[in-house]
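Researcher: Following up on the earlier apo prediction. This time include the ligand. It's zinc ion, with the SMILES given after the sequence.
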Amino acid sequence: MLELRPTCEQCNKALPPESSEAMICSFECTFCRDCVDLLQNVCPNCGGGFAPRPVRPARDWKNGNSLQRYPATTHVTYKPVVLEDHAAFAVAPGSLPPTQR
Ligand SMILES: [Zn+2]
Ligand SMILES: [Zn+2]
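Model: Understood. Below is the ligand-bound prediction.
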């Protein structure tokens, strides 16, 4: 299940569960859309691409599958990278579409 991390790993901007700006890689490294652009859609931790993070329903529409029973984590993961260093790392993975990395 997604942790729904509370902030962008690069700029620490708040990304609440309902945010439409939250982007995640397959390992759930979480960034805002602006930082995904700065990172050239290359995750600094795994080299994968990003996709919009789904919004978990706040209300219990069915079987308790909502934020009420499965709340977002409050643990902040904030470990910004130096963009110049990242650009060097991103050359190889960024040369391929995410589906071919
Ligand atoms: Zn950000
Ligand atoms: Zn990643």
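Model: Residues 8, 10-11, 13, 31-32, 34-35 surround zinc ion (ligand 1) (CB under 6 Å).
Researcher: Noted. I'll compare it with the apo version next.
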